[in-house]
Amino acid sequence: MDQTESLIASTLFYYPETIPDTVQAITSDMFASASARELFDAIVVLQATGQELTFSNLGGQVKPQTLSVFMAIDEPPTSELLKSALRKFKQAHALRRISKLSAAVQQAVETGNDTAELVAELHKLQTAVPDSLTIYGVEGLSRQGQVLLFFDKRSRQLSEKILTDVIPIATTSNIKKLSRLNLSILRGRKVIIWRGEHQEASDHLYHLLTKAGAAGVRVIRNPSEQAASFGIIEAVEHAGWDAKQIFGYIKANLVDPAKDEEETALAAQGSRPYEPDDTDPLPDHSDAPYQCLGFDHNVYFYLPHGSNQVIPLRADQHSQSHLITIAPLNWWESCYPGKQGANFSAAANALIRHQERKGVYDPSRLRGRGAWEDAGRSVLHLGDVMYVDGAKIDPHAVKTKYVYEAAASMEYDTPCSPLPVRPAAGTRGASEFLDLCNMLTWERPIYGTMLAGWCALAPICGALDWRPHIHITGGAGAGKTTVMFNIIAPVVGPASIKLTGSITAAAIRQYAGCDARPVLADEFEAEKESSTKRIEDILELARACSSDSDAITIKGGADGKAKVYRSRLAFCFSSIGVNATQYADISRVTVLSLRAGSAENQAANDLHFKKIVAAIDDLLTEEYCCAYRARMVQLIPIIKRNCKTFASAVAVTVGTQRTGDQLGALLALAYAHTSNREITAEEARAWIEARDWSEYTNRAEQLDESRCLSKILETIVRVQGIRQTYDLNIGELIHIANGGTHDVSSDIADTTLRRHGIRVDIYGSTVSISNTHDAIKRWLDKTPWANNWRQFLARIPGAEKTDTMRFSPGSPPSKAVALPLSVLGEA
What we know:
By secondary structure, this protein is of the alpha/beta class. About 40% of the residues lie in helices and about 15% in strands. The radius of gyration is 45 Å and the shape is elongated.
């Protein structure tokens, strides 16, 4: 028993009337030793019952050395001395009790149990302990979190107001008294010590915390350019820092005193020694004024909030001149402070490590200007502003997996009310535009519906899974120019790309970038041989734009690296002739033919044309076209579902799935002129069955293999007959060689065919076409089949590849493709 306990015990034993009222608050567990505790229990019980205190009723449990202390006191201590002794006694008890409560609180936090009562008692006991032995802020330990430790109460109080993601506590900086602190309550906690000017105390406390079982103890060093007294008070009240800047300072200056000198030297340069899998609450790059998009082959991609344009940086470009393009200089200085300004080496290291965790950059996430569908929302991106479901919004506030990159402001519309379906009194309706398209003199009535569908589709082409293209054709005076410039151009809006002159596919691709926009190409003719390749390239680009799966185009760059383009464009061509020759183009470009009026009904033609012009002038005002496009943007989610429904119905009713995709999209957009709702499969099928689709039901003649064979069969050769010379095509010669009657004998026909690499077997009912003959190669020159006609012919039903054969005497043998004569209409 120590002197304080002996003094209190003897006073209770000999002089109970002198004990102050405060002594009554003492309980038995205030004694450390078992004998003293038992003695005190007996004294309290006997005094409360009024019994006389004798050694016998103490049960003989008092140790001799304890009893001798009691009997050595002849006079009661003064009240002042007793109060002082009592205060020390209560402090010692509080420290012992705090130690027990600390372990209980820690266990409760780890198991998820309620800590309210334990923390309340802990906080109450702290008031009985001198400041030098107090840990201020222990009530915050009732929750999980990282601890930030200061050496003064004011810093803790300021941190509690500003840094809500950590638990601030404070304690003494006296080295001797630090050893008396009860630090067990911090066992298992991550602790950061704000060193400030108390380096010696910080080092001592670091070892005490480590010994007490604290986890991951780190120290905030003072960078050489800061004063030794720099702390959170100076950061907030003098430098005006906010929470983000303070956290940036903490992260840039964390060190682990236990690490070796090399790592500590790196930490002194501003890099963070924490492992990549740290889970502390300090903020990362998610709060930065830029977005990390990932990396690809030593190139790291960033999206600054300022410019909102993707910036690629190589590893060696992470320097000041490049980093200030993705975040302001003062941001780097606050988050990565160095000796002179910002520590850009530390910033570069942090950025690259963070990008590695983001993964490989995916350019398909990039979206430019235009209308899009995003997780069921309608998005209109105009370059400098975005509208989501009609509401203007900051691109950084949109929760999305896509990257909407800023660009020059695209001429488009100010927000306006979408058109209704049908006109009310004094208003216009979307159905009126469909009526206007049907007024045109089409060769087939369905073409007006398809034109309206494409005009509705063009402004929202980026939102669709399939983008059909159309080709307006017709003879001179049929009205192609009127349709292109007086109907299509105003209704699709100023965002369209209008092709003029000898523009190339590469120019279109680079100009459009990742935009989703309509393209209008008037007079799309190959009048000169030099224009043929240019037009073929544009058709190839249009083909790639049809679907999102085909939208990526890869081109070799001058720097030896491939350049990836993701184009989502909807093309409208116009010309007298149609330039699409390959089936891949024919199936993606729907031809809409205008019919010129007859010369004998010129007056009626002129009158009808005037009605069309009057209707255009009356309907297609700027306000109407704006509301028309707003309607289609608003209906994007419904339109997408209707496209799938119509595509399935067309595929079943009309032809292949490709035909379904092509026509289904046009019909779904045409349907959007007359309804705001989602169409059912039964309604779509009934709508399609009520119309004439004979043009599309049998498209076998448009397949590349059929057109390749037709090109061969239609080739003209000169043949000597019995009486004169004839110009006959290959198909006619095959008919003669197969027994048909003509002035040209079957033998001469057969010989002529063999001379050109074709051989008729009348017994096997086949015709074999050489794979390599020069004559056939000349016939197919400048066609898509010039070098691989054998592959296309082999696709024809019933075709078989033959072994090597000789076609005429003296000619080199070659393999061939044998076709049934029935394919050519021969019995």
